[in-house]
Amino acid sequence: MNYRNYITIEPNKRGGKPCVRGLRITVYEVLEYLASDMTEAEILEDFPDLMWQDFKACIAYAADHFHNSKQYGKNVSQSWSSGYWQYES
């Protein structure tokens, strides 16, 4: 899957965060819903503009950006601070 066909970044939309197909739904929101045990069907019910392939695009985007991040390969501590995981050096 080429997530670049589904994930858009516009400076004036949602603070420049990556969104799904130009919608005002961010990749992070979709991933948070999935991580909170919502099913794809439940998410689609709440956000009817989403499509099934958007889920794979969000996961592919996250995997690509995690793999290319400076934090790749570092241990994640168990603490959550200011909305971000703290990485151990």
TrEMBL record:
Q: Which domain of life is it from?
A: Bacteria
> Which Pfam families does this entry report, sorted A to Z?
DUF433 (PF04255)
Q: Which InterPro entries match?
A: DUF433, Homeodomain-like_sf, WH-like_DNA-bd_sf
Full protein name:
DUF433 domain-containing protein
